[in-house]
Amino acid sequence: MIDLDRLIARIEQLGQVGALPGGGCKRLALTPEDAAGRALVTGWFRDLGLDVTTDVIGNTWAIRPGPGDLPPVVMGSHIDTVATGGLYDGTLGVLAGLEVIESAIEAGVETDHPLAVAFFTNEEGARFAPDMMGSGVAAGALPLDAMLASRGIDDATVDEALTAIGARGDAPVGALSPAAYLELHIEQGPVLESEGVQIGVVTGVQGISWTEFTVKGRSAHAGTTPMLMRRDAGHVAAAIAMEARAIATDFGPPQVATVGRMSLSPDLVNVVPERATLTVDLRNTDETRLAGAEARLFAFAEAAARDEGCTLTRRSLARFEPVAFDAKLVDDIATAADRLGYSHRRMPSGAGHDAQMFAPFCPSAMIFVPSRDGISHNIEEYTAPEDLERGARLLADVALARAGCRKGPRA
Amino acid sequence: MIDLDRLIARIEQLGQVGALPGGGCKRLALTPEDAAGRALVTGWFRDLGLDVTTDVIGNTWAIRPGPGDLPPVVMGSHIDTVATGGLYDGTLGVLAGLEVIESAIEAGVETDHPLAVAFFTNEEGARFAPDMMGSGVAAGALPLDAMLASRGIDDATVDEALTAIGARGDAPVGALSPAAYLELHIEQGPVLESEGVQIGVVTGVQGISWTEFTVKGRSAHAGTTPMLMRRDAGHVAAAIAMEARAIATDFGPPQVATVGRMSLSPDLVNVVPERATLTVDLRNTDETRLAGAEARLFAFAEAAARDEGCTLTRRSLARFEPVAFDAKLVDDIATAADRLGYSHRRMPSGAGHDAQMFAPFCPSAMIFVPSRDGISHNIEEYTAPEDLERGARLLADVALARAGCRKGPRA
């Protein structure tokens, strides 16, 4: 089972909603483009005769009615994109979930737990902060009222945007209560492709620490100021950037460290910078290690600023502890991949996903398929058809087993 | 001789032309504010009965008529300012020159060489590139036609701006031919103040090398891309910045190195930078050492980019060889300072000045007085009255001696 052509056709059809001239698409959360995407996908849900529910923040799920009242096994992800998004990030998890259900129906497969497919509001966080908003609210990790009041880059609130596109439902927070949560997603990184591995069995999500450092020194003439009399904010910033790299090297994988932003002021060739700001993004799957990386970085930054006669302030922009997925469910994915003959490796997710919001509340796990060149959040995003098929087949296998396949062929 | 009150009154009066609300002033070259400054200063020249001449690029000088036809001893600098200029940069050299001549006239002092005072067009380079334009043209180091065609930050050419404010004269290039050139200037750095020294005897001007590096790597997700698979342009930029500092440290004074500009692209917290640009400003008084600093920096940058899998391009934004001032004239300044009882030290100029343009063609030298907190190009620029007086008296002493004082009291 799994009709690859149908899955790809839907991915392409949804990709036409908010399509960008050069390829890829833009469906920022709760915009008219997102509304059109929601309508298309919800239409497919209804075409299959599924029970469709939308909650107060626009999360939408479709349940294949089952015989009893057991909670559903939910396959889900999101259909909003970043401003220069591709066709697979999020979309694959939703449409593969739909494909699993449609295939099961066609094959006459029955399950103890109903199968469900869901898309969650504003996973990307590209319009409204924070990201993973809808799944966070659904899982009870984020407060509904504060999320509704979140103001987007266009100054509209989530509340206003929900009303504007008619995406607000009446199901309350907590209405979706999965027996298990499974998310198929593109890797968004280069590891699987570079190692020639077909499937990533995701063990959890890295903890994330984002810090913005601001260094204040003294502007001075680049020609007339002896080196020993300088208080060069830019030098301190460069030193912190080098230390971030050194921490990643010394700690070893999976520790990563990235300086994505840096700016100097007044930003003139011949003026010693008075002020510098930079951001450091640290990630690790182990909370103790992540905290250790932060501690080393912060201590270094303080000392570097002090040595240069500068002052340092730092601000946390984001901090999430690592999330571990359900060990049994992770094992089930690996076992199923073996049975299907797919090469696989265990790996953490370096990016955040809706699955992490459900992990504290129900058995949750993720399946990764390769991203060509590791590219994502980019119109060049691409995953080959055979990888889409392997991912969807594995998702079907694990979801059906978890739901308790009672009748009909196994995937 | 030297009437300090008169000197200060003129500095303050000229500072009112283009005065900024919070202090300081803005007289960008060849703007209406510069025109008003020129009119004020030229009026003072005429009030003293000096012969005033303006050349084809607006350089203006005033000669005290003398008995013979010997070339003049010229005291000069500039009266244009940067956008947030102070009251002393340039202005002091011009108004102190005027004060020397006025005092000499009042004291009945006669000289073999006429005394002259000059201001040169667009020394700052804040509106038109390059800086030291007028003195460069006057000394024959810069081609007139190319300078007239130089387009300013407001898109006007020097030619158009000269016409617009009526600052063009009819004296040809080369009309000013000094017997010697002397320039009193604020230090624009912290050395004299920090060492408690009253006078800087300037031995020359540091050579300057400005390089812009552009590093091209590959953007990648900060969470999903292992460190060893990154091509992080920002990391290379930070490494180059650290090497610039290391070069200054290893070479020792007077080598200085400054990274004044740095920018990352796409400049997002969670994206490995695809592109980074930074500038490095290297200065040394010794050409061989300066070239050595460049060679080490360039080799390091190439290797750092290669190690990270990035490409590197570099572009020279400016390159001037060091200028040595006339050894005899420099000695004369030191001797005169001793005679006047002023503490002094020899030092290079870290900034460019009009004097360096004349250095190849006539004995030239400069005198520095302290800048409070080393601040210049800033409305907070300040030099204390007693420092102004010492500078002007020393200038008078050296200028009169060089001009051949024939009659009347010595300073």
From TrEMBL, chains A, B:
Q: Its domain of life?
A: Bacteria
What keywords are annotated for this sequence in UniProt? Hydrolase, Metal-binding, Zinc
* Ligand binding (Zn(2+) 2): D89, E124, H377
Q: Which residues form the Peptidase M20 dimerisation domain?
A: 204-306
**Coiled coil located at which positions?**
none
MF terms in GO: hydrolase activity, acting on carbon-nitrogen (but not peptide) bonds, in linear amidines; metal ion binding
How many cofactors are bound and how?
Answer: Binds 2 Zn(2+) ions per subunit.
Residues the entry annotates as binding Zn(2+) 1: H78, D89, H185
User: InterPro entries attached here?
Assistant: Amidase_Cbmase (IPR010158), Bact_exopeptidase_dim_dom (IPR036264), Peptidase_M20 (IPR002933), Peptidase_M20_dimer (IPR011650)
Cofactor(s) required for function per UniProt: Zn(2+)
Into which family does the record put it?
Belongs to the peptidase M20 family.
PANTHER family from the UniProt entry: ALLANTOATE AMIDOHYDROLASE, ALLANTOATE DEIMINASE-RELATED
Protein name stated in the entry: N-carbamoyl-L-amino acid amidohydrolase
